[in-house]
Amino acid sequence: MNWMRGDDYRNQDQRDDDQRLDALLRMYHQACGSPDAGANFMPDLWARIESRQRFTFSFRRMARAVATAAVALSLALGVYMSIPGSDTDYNQTYIEALANFNSVDASDIVGPVQMDLSDRPVK
To answer: Are 41 and 35 within 8 A, CB to CB?
Structure first.
């Protein structure tokens, strides 16, 4: 066998794999048998397939409904937010609103402090 080239080795390996696959399929056929090809074979087969797909179909339908509702809600909120409001409190920026809320008066910072020392005991 020293005279075989690489292609011949690959062909031999492929033939071995084919023989092993054929043996496996023969054993499977003996274990499972052949399906009955009667008049109700296809309707029964489709009934079994559809019974397995019902859950997947209902889940898929529910997921599509939720996705559609999310898109519709997003569009509705987008339209609602794009309509200009009549309230004038919201026509300023965030920085302007903070500046108006936390306005500092100079009299609060520099104003006089009064202390009542009458209640203090004298030493």
So the answer is: yes
- Per DSSP, the residues of 50-81 read HHHHHHHHHHHHHHHHHHHHHHHHHHHHHHHH
Distance spanning both ends of the chain, measured CA to CA: 122
Strands (E), 4-49: none
Q: How far apart are CA 1 and CA 8, in angstroms?
A: 10
pTM (whole model) above 0.70: no
Q: pLDDT digits over 3-30, tens only?
A: 555 566 667 788 889 999 999 999 998 8
Burial of residue 38 (number of CB atoms within 10 Å: 0-12, 13-18, 19+) = exposed
Cα–Cα distances (Å) from 28 to 15, 17, 34, 35, 38, in that order, read 20, 16, 10, 13, 21
